[in-house]
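re: the backbone from monday

yeah here it is again, tokenized this time
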């Protein structure tokens, strides 16, 4: 399904394939011979998404571009089932396995691998040829690759790149306070623009 969002429509190369149950929304460009499989979502949430050639986005994966952080995938990239990519850059020939997560402002170098349930945190820079083992976390620039039980090391390696500041533009709340009311108001307002989305006529997946 192709949707127009904020008056922008997806651009899909004639040799690409979008599965009938996939959703491609807004300012999205998909290159030649790429494949967006069943249940996958590729959404330009105020920022563009660019997917190069021979990219495979597997079942139920999610790729989002945001106003601060567009999403860009190079060529010959495999994004595994249930992977989640937001506002990141992925260079050529990278492999992102099932359940991997790559967050806003992160960069995945060429030929890098993020294995099952691996995480590349906000603004992390995973160098070319690096490997994030199963369930491990890449954090910092250049990225340190840390096991999940080392929470304090992960926390300190983030430095100023805190998740709420990077993703939502909000400083982390002091102890026993919360930013959630402001965060959800902002997010609901932005996501509410989907109420104006329109199905793109002539979408090949609807034929």
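seq for it, each position gets an aa:
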């Amino acid at each position: 399904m192709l949707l127009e969002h904020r008056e922008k429509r997806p651009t899909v190369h004639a040799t690409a394939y979008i599965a009938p149950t996939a959703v491609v929304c807004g300012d999205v460009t998909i290159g030649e011979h790429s494949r967006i499989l069943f249940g996958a979502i590729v959404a330009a949430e105020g920022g563009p998404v660019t997917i190069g050639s021979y990219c495979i986005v597997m079942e139920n994966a999610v790729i989002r571009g945001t106003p601060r952080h567009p999403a860009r995938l190079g060529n010959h990239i495999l994004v595994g089932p249930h992977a989640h990519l937001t506002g990141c850059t992925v260079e050529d020939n990278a492999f992102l396995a099932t359940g991997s997560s790559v967050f806003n402002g992160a960069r995945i170098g060429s030929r890098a691998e993020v294995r099952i349930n691996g995480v590349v945190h906000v603004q992390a820079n995973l160098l070319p040829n690096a490997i994030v083992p199963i369930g491990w976390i890449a954090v910092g620039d250049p990225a340190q690759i840390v096991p999940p039980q080392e929470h304090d090391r992960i926390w300190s390696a983030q430095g100023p790149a805190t998740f709420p500041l990077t993703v939502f533009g909000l400083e982390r709340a002091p102890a026993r306070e919360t930013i959630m009311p402001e965060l959800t108001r902002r997010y609901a307002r932005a996501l509410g623009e989907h109420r104006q989305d329109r199905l793109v006529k002539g979408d090949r997946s609807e034929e």
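The chain has one domain: 2-206. The two ends are 10 Å apart (CA to CA).
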